[in-house]
Design goal:
Strand content: 5-15%
Order of helices and strands: HHHHEHHEHEEHEHEHHEHEEHH
Shape: globular
Radius of gyration: 22 Å
Structural class: alpha/beta
Number of strands: 9
Helix content: 40-55%
Strand order of the largest sheet: 1-2-3-4-5-6-7-8-9
Length: 301
């Protein structure tokens, strides 16, 4: 049901009696609230329910065994299965499931997924023949990158060790993704990876296509440098000439290192935000704002 339909159904006591313009403003503001609040709003009337409930399932994140198994069981339950399966197949656009078997089950059920967080061990063939625009993978190399959907605009590789040869291989392989504009690499190596990443970043201007406008190098290691060793990695970062590069860190202690952005604490440790799926307030927009402050503006798609 559209906002206009909801507003025009004023003769039905189950529908809200509000002008379409005002209802539109209310619903847009409501989507800035946590899911629990949205569920309460959806209970106000059937009109709100029909608009909000599908949107609540547009992003499906199942990162615990219990949540994953429970959701898949409901999807196949005789009493709810068909209706629920039809509903999620038309609603889910963003999918993150930690367990390979359940991820395959949901990918088969949800053909409209455009953003996918792939669990480690999921075969890359499950990305074939899909119009994916955002993809997060555990590992990647030149051969597997050639097989990725050509529609990808945002790509994240989660387990990168920061070796120069590895970065060169990944950077040059991005030429196989003609629409790629945002590329992120994450490492668990901690402080030792900062200088290594920074020194290797010199290869990006020649190895990575200029169509890639935002390059995020993310340090996920929780161990921060020693109290007296903040300057060395900062100097390495300052030497990076490519204006597209943004350094980020999960540990807020890294904010003491010059040139490193730390995730806003209100989001930590939300993997959904880190993966860049929280519209208008995710890792990518955070990086774009940082680039804009340096005078580098990412062109809209």
């Amino acid at each position: 049901m559209s906002v206009q339909q909801a507003a025009s159904s004023s003769l039905d006591p189950s529908q809200p009696f509000l002008p379409a313009e005002l209802l539109d403003i209310i619903l847009k503001l409501s989507f800035q609230n946590p899911k629990a609040t949205l569920i309460n709003i959806a209970l106000v009337c059937w009109a709100f329910h029909d608009i909000i409930y599908p949107a609540l399932h547009a992003s499906l994140v199942l990162n615990t065994w219990r949540a994953s198994k429970s959701f898949c069981a409901r999807m196949h339950a005789p009493e709810t299965g068909n209706d629920f399966l039809t509903f999620i197949s038309s609603s889910v656009r963003v999918l993150r499931v930690e367990f390979v078997e359940d991820c395959i089950d949901l990918l088969n059920a949800c053909p409209l997924v455009t953003a996918l967080w792939m669990p480690d061990g999921l075969d890359m063939r499950y990305t074939f023949n899909r119009s994916l625009t955002r993809l997060s993978v555990a590992t990647l190399n030149r051969d597997t990158m050639e097989d990725l959907p050509k529609t990808i605009t945002h790509l994240e590789v989660r387990n990168v060790y920061g070796m120069r040869t590895e970065l060169i291989d990944l950077a040059s392989a991005t030429e196989h993704l003609p629409l790629l504009t945002h590329f992120a690499m994450r490492t668990l190596e901690g402080p030792s990876a900062i200088s290594q990443f920074a020194s290797s970043a010199s290869i990006f201007p020649v190895s990575m296509p200029q169509t890639v406008q935002c390059i995020v190098l993310c340090i996920d290691g929780l161990a921060a440098p020693g109290r007296t060793d903040w300057d060395t990695p900062g100097e390495a970062i300052s030497a990076v000439a490519d204006p597209r590069v943004v350094f980020m860190a999960l540990n807020v202690e890294f904010k003491k290192v010059k040139g490193i952005l730390t995730y806003p604490e209100m989001h930590w440790p939300s993997e959904d935000w880190i993966a860049g799926w929280a519209e208008d307030n995710d890792m990518w927009t955070f990086a774009e704002r940082a680039l804009a402050q340096k005078g580098w503006f990412v062109a809209p798609l």
